[in-house]
Structure formats: C-alpha cells, structure tokens
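As a warm-up, study this chain.
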Amino acid sequence: MNLDFSTEQKMIKDEALKFLKKECSYDRVKELEESEPGYDPKMWKKMADLGWMALLFPKAYEGDGGQFMETALLLEAMGSMVVPSPFFSTVIQCGLILTTAGSEDQKKTLIPAIINGDLIMALAQYEESGSYAISDIAMEAKPLADGYVLNGTKLFVMNANIAHKLVVAAKTGADKVSLFLVDAKAPGVNIHKLPTIALDNNCEVIFENVSVAKASMIGDPGSAESVLRKMNALAAVAKSAEMLGGCKACIDMTVDYAKQRVQYDKPIGGFQAIQHFVANMLIDYDTNHNYLYRVIAQIDNDQEYEIDAYSLKANTNEAYKFISERGVHIHGGIGTTREANPGLFFRRVKADEVICGDTPTFLDAVFEGLMAKAG
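Now compare it with the structure written out below.
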C-alpha cells in the first residue's frame, strides 16, 4: 500500500493552508466565533470558487469525482486553522447522504448548488435523549395524503442557523426511521442557537406541524439507519482528519513557544520534562495521522473500512484531548486566555469528540464489528 502523497495532493494541502492563513487567521477565527452567523460568507464563496466543495462529488453532478484523500487534505488544513465554516455539515454529512441515497432530481438540484457555494445544509439527527442509536429517534413524521407532517425537537444541529436546507431523521413507523429534506425557513421550523464552550453553530431545532411533500424523502422509507451508518463512518474519518490538523498546529505552536519562553535563564524547551511532553504529543499525532491515511486508502480502494473508521475516531478523540491539554499546560496560565491560541483547539475538543458518536460509542462499535467478523 503506497501512502505517499502525489504532487497534486501536496499542492492541494499547501495551497489550502496558504489561502486559510491569509483569509482566516486565528484572530479572524475569534472574531467569527463571536459573530451571529459564526462564519464568513465571502470566504465560503471563495472556497467554492477554488473548487473545494466539488472534490468529493461525482462528475455526473458537476463534481470533480475526486477520491476521499483530497477532501481529507483540505479538512486537515481547515482543522489546523480551526476554520469556522459549514463545510462539514454541508459537504460531508448532508453531501454524503445525498450522494448515497438521494433521488436523481435531488442530486441534480442540490449537489451543484453545494458545489457553487449557494447551498448550506445541516443534519438534524440527535435528540433530547442523547442517544446515538437511530432506533431511539422519537421525532415523528405522520403520513398525509400528499406528504408528511413533522413534529419533534432536534439538538446539536450544526449550522442550522445559517442553513438553507435541513436533512431530518424522523420515525415513519413503529420501527422505521426515514430521512426528509426540509426548508430551514418552512412554517413551523424554529431554530435557536445554543451557547457552547466551542462557540460554534450548534442549534436546537423545534418542528411544529411542519408539512413536507412525499418527494422530500431521501431514499426509501425506513432506510435512514443504513444511510446514516454509512455516512457516519465516512464522516468519522473526515472529522478525524480535521482534528489531526488541529493536533499538528497545536504541537507546532507549543514547540515555538517552548523555544521562546525563558525561565531560569534558559528556554523552557531545554528542560527534559517539557521535551517529554512534546515527544509524547508528537507520538500521539504521528500514530493517528498514519492510521488516518491507511483508512483513507482503504476507502478509496473500495476495501472494508468501517471498523477501522470507528477505531480511528475513538483514538483521535483521545489524542486531540491529550495534545490540546498539554499545549495549554506548556503555555502556562496564558494558555487558558482568549488572547492565546492553544485555547482555540482546547475548546473544540469536546465538540469534535461527540460528532458522529463519542469514544465509548465508537469503541462499542469496534467490539461489535470484530465479534461479528469472528463469527
């Protein structure tokens, strides 16, 4: 298995980093976090003009037909700059759902709009129970003659406050959960931005007698579990790429600080305890970074990847937590302040950890997958 990056792939990551450092510095990130939309619409459009949204989509729908590798490289760059954008919810979560299960009309209408930067989407899956299990979804979609009526509440819906369309998981029968495409401004849809430690665009969305047409269903009735399972495995790998980009940036800024911060007449980087901290940070990063691109190679070569995807995300959760904590620790008191940059990563750890499923959920999935393979 060749895990070397091609010249084109190296260029994608280098150019993405160059663009983001210019357009979205850490100071700019802090400004966007405190703004109402929580992202920069002009930068979003520039990202679309650069072709970033097109990489993952098939050529039949105006995409580049690229492999998962190229998108992961972009996500690494975005993670290193902690870019607040709707890329993950729109391109990764909802984009993968549309590509996997959408009708031809849905794909031809929505995917080009995503690629052009004209459409932002959000996935409304999780509820007040806090469960990741699709079978625990309580929100109902009651059938009518010409469609369905949705009632219920969704929590932690990323970017719902800026989304044009929502992908909503709701029960259409006793044991059936289906996916629906809902206009974010439809009558009965109420969106409230939640206060979070990550200062991100997580929202509560309340649906009160929201009417949707039959054609708004994504995939077959009752197909949500299989569609979301496939999407979540791929999204877990994508989020791991973003988190590992953050890990590397946190290590780099911590090493730079340790070289400059003088205590007892020498840079603190000269003390063995600090060197051990940094060495362990780098080991955690390198181990998971190599694992990331092994899993991506499996995806792009149509090999089995689901168990490895879950294992990768569980391990990356712990690595990001450890690296960001050590980064703040080595910076000392200033590391906890808004002025310092390590806190940008430290505050995002919990938010990123629970996306697609938390560490215990992924470890359980790894165990179940291995037991199933063992027979």
